[in-house]
């Protein structure tokens, strides 16, 4: 364990130095600003380099203090954008050099553009993260869906991540918007919160007045297994939600029936929480083979097992649509899907929500949040993935 810990600390220090050092070098030192600007910029970089890991340790370590967590998470988002756009700023520097602009004026132009762009981007990204999500309406054709269920309104929320920033008001407005959609089914696809029931229940409380004519269903995401999953399962049950803990329910309307199933997150098996693991066969045990199946599975890559099992529609979250550019490249590669509809096999359609909230850095950059209204259509309707 000691050699592994040493390697981890070495890598961590190198990453911190790189993330802080590149912007410091290219934005503060290289432009040869007046001495006062260079001194102030260097002091800010030094304070950030020391203060950032301290804030993250106090905020996300054993103490789990909310204020340091907010400071550390916010700086992490700003720092990543500074680093990424500083690197991309080298392209602008090359263009200006080829146009004949001499140093240090060239480097000052580049530094100014990067700083202003990052400030605007982070301001916009924070607004996008903190706003009540807009509604994204998607029609999904399920050939096996009975005519009595044609037009069923399924409202999907995911990745609310109630955490160190108190978003009780946001939570209430989220529920108001969801209720206004008159859902037949309201589903939460996991990652409800970051923190214990004692610390986050006030933010989750508005979900108790969420409405749906047929069912309100919830599954655990990976973050529940860092926040006391059994307590959250019990709490959501107490708020009147049906927790699909590797099980299913059968809903009926107009003489047609629909199976709505859910599984624990893929990380549950290694979480140490007794009785929790993604168990799709258990969730579908006893299901009539002729009935259409809607499955809630937090991670999109669960479709690798749901498609062979004959699931008609899988609903997932987890990706946040990447949340902050350019992380979408990593997320897509790891999950196989980023956002929206995708087909897997002859029968299975996957819908991946970009999520309603945010995790960690309070920014959404080129990855807007959403509440999804899925209108389910019977097989007589055109397939949106074909047409």
Q: Would you kindly provide a written description of the structure presented here, covering whatever features stand out?
A:
The structure is a single chain. With 387 residues, the chain is an alpha/beta fold. The protein has 10 helices and 12 strands. The protein has helices at residues 2-29, 35-60, 66-98, 105-130, 168-180, 197-204, 229-238, 280-283, 303-306, 328-335, and strands spanning 135-141, 152-157, 185-188, 215-218, 242-243, 247-253, 256-262, 293-296, 313-316, 340-344, 348-352, 371-377. The strands form 2 sheets. Strands 1-12-2-3-4-5 form a 6-stranded mixed sheet, covered by helices on one side. A 6-stranded mixed sheet has the order 6-7-8-9-11-10. Strand 6 and strand 7 (256-262) form a beta hairpin. Helix 1 packs across helix 3, helix 2 packs antiparallel against helix 3 (66-98) and helix 3 packs antiparallel against helix 4 (105-130). The model has no long low-confidence stretch (mean pLDDT 94).
What is the number of helices? Answer: 10
Mind summarizing the main beta sheet?
6 strands, mixed
Instruction: Using the CA coordinates, give the radius of gyration.
Output: 24 Å
Number of strands: 12
State mean pLDDT (0 to 100 scale): 94
What fraction of the residues are assigned to beta strands by DSSP? 15-25%
Percent helix, as a range, is 40-55%
Oligomeric state of the chains present here: single chain
Distance between the ends: 55 Å
Write out the strand line-up for the largest beta sheet, numbering strands in chain order: 1-12-2-3-4-5
Low-confidence region ranges: none
The helix-strand sequence is HHHHEEHEHEHEEEHEHEHEEE
Secondary-structure-derived class = alpha/beta
Query: In one word, what is the shape?
Result: elongated
């Amino acid at each position: 364990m000691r050699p592994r810990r040493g390697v981890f600390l070495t890598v961590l220090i190198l990453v911190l130095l790189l993330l802080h050092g590149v912007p410091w070098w290219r934005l503060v030192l290289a432009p040869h600003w007046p001495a006062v600007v260079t001194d102030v910029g260097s002091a800010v970089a030094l304070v950030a380099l020391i203060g950032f890991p301290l804030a993250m340790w106090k905020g996300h370590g054993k103490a789990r203090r909310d204020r340091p967590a907010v400071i550390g998470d916010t700086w992490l988002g700003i720092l990543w954008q500074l680093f990424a756009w500083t690197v991309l700023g080298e392209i602008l520097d090359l263009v200006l050099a080829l146009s004949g602009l001499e140093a240090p004026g060239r480097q000052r132009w580049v530094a100014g553009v990067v700083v202003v762009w990052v400030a605007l981007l982070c301001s916009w990204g924070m607004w996008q993260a903190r706003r009540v999500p807009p509604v994204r309406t998607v029609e999904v054709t399920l050939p096996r869906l009975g005519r009595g269920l044609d037009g069923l309104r399924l409202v999907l929320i995911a990745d609310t991540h109630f955490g160190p920033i108190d978003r009780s008001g946001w939570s209430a407005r989220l529920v108001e918007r969801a209720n206004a959609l008159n859902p037949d089914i309201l589903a939460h696809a996991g990652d409800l919160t970051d923190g214990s029931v004692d610390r986050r229940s006030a933010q989750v409380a508005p979900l108790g007045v969420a409405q749906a004519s047929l069912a309100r269903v919830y599954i655990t995401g990976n973050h529940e297994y860092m926040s006391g999953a059994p307590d959250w399962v019990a709490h959501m049950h107490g708020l009147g939600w049906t927790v699909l803990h590797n099980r299913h329910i059968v809903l009926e309307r107009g003489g047609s029936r629909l199976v709505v199933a859910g599984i624990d997150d893929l990380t549950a098996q290694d979480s140490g929480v007794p009785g929790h693991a993604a168990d799709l066969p258990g969730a579908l045990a006893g299901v009539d083979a002729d009935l259409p199946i809607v499955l809630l599975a937090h991670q999109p890559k669960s479709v690798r097992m749901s498609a062979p099992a004959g699931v008609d529609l899988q609903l997932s979250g987890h990706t946040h649509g990447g949340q902050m550019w350019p992380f979408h490249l990593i997320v897509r590669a790891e999950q196989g899907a980023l956002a929206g509809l995708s087909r897997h096999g002859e029968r299975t359609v996957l819908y991946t929500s970009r999520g309603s909230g945010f995790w960690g850095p309070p920014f959404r950059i080129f990855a807007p949040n959403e509440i999804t209204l899925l209108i389910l259509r019977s097989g007589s309707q055109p397939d949106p993935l074909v047409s």
